[in-house]
Amino acid sequence: MRADRLVSLVLLLRQRGRLTASALARELEVSTRTVLRDIEALSAAGVPVYAERGRHGGFALLPGFRTELTGLNHDEALALLAAGSGRGGQAFGLGAALASAMRKVVDALPPGHPATAGDAARRFLVEPETDLLSRPVVTDEVPGAVMTEIRRAVLAGHKLRIEYVAAGQSPRWRTVDPVGLVTVRERGYLLALRAGQDRTYRLSRVRAAEELPEAAERPDAVDLERAWKERCAQFLSGDPVAVSVRVNPERREELLRTVVAVRAAESEEDGRLRLAVTFQDLRHAEWALWRFGTDAEVLSPASLRAVLHKRAVTLAAHYADRSPGITP
Predict the structure, then answer these.
(1) What are the φ and ψ backbone dihedral angles of 286, each rounded to 5 degrees?
(2) From CA 38, how far away is CA 19, in angstroms rounded?
(3) Angle CA(93)–CA(254)–CA(274) in degrees, nearest 5?
(4) DSSP at 295
(5) What is 174-221 written as a DSSP string?
(6) pTM of the entire structure?
């Protein structure tokens, strides 16, 4: 761990020039005292790092000092920098490691290339924090210690004990055989086997985790892409419900992102769209369509209209009783 930090420290000084101890501490997520100890260790190892005193002082490397190159060309480094600009690493607790890797990628470029590759990478934005409607992208938060245990068990092929909170249930401990990790739209999932049966766990619902010494009972090889498709098919294999709905065309794409399938679509005279879509089940349809308010009107089935009507009446009654200055 310290060796990686020392390399990162050298790369930061190479790429940014003179930096203060506090600036280095922020980048490396350590204390200034640790940075000072690392500087001493680098000097003792023969790395030409020196201190400049005064108001604008800090630590720097002697001009011309270079670390070993890896042979990456411009496009290879650009691809890595662009991939690293997203937040995928955060989903698996690898944010700090990703930042360190990006510094090494930049340092691996021949003289003159880091600036051009860095400028090019800044023209790519992968998964911004908000969409065009300024809605924030919801990112699952997983404690670092929990993610570390899960990641270790997945990579080592060991059994994993997790405290998991399933939807609508109390926290419960269970032992699983981890298969792999998947991130989709800023949400992380653990694919595992439990008693030989496929299981999918949302990482944000794992409260605690412990890597066990026993070997996991899982296949030696895995095709995560295929495994994920199979889990998706299982998830959608409930009791599908067909829904006819009129929707504001400006929110068409938003609605289509929530459905299982689209069977038909046609425009109406008032400008609205009439869609025939399929949801996983009645509960799924209620959850998805309630969010659209008056921008969507369910035409059928009658059972779904009744559920939404009851929900609207309950909400209206709630606010009629409690809204100050408003007479029911």
Answers:
(1) -60, -45
(2) 14
(3) 155
(4) G
(5) EEEEEEEEEEETTEEEEEEEETTEEEEEEGGGEEEEEEEEEEP---SS
(6) 0.49
For residue 29, which amino acid is it?
E
Residue 216 dihedral angles phi and psi, to the nearest 5°: -75, 145
- CA 209, CA 318: separation in Å to the nearest integer? 41
Whether the CB-CB separation of 142 and 188 falls below 8 Å is answered with yes
DSSP state of 294: G
Q: Which amino acid is at 205?
A: R
Rounded-to-integer distance, Cα 30 and Cα 100, Å? 14
Tokens 């990162």 locate to 8
Contact 153, 159 (CB under 8 A): yes
pLDDT digit string, tens, across residues 89-125: 555 666 666 666 666 666 655 555 555 555 555 655 5
Contact present, 60 and 52 (Cβ < 8 Å) = yes
CA distances from 76 to 79, 85, 298 (A): 5, 14, 50
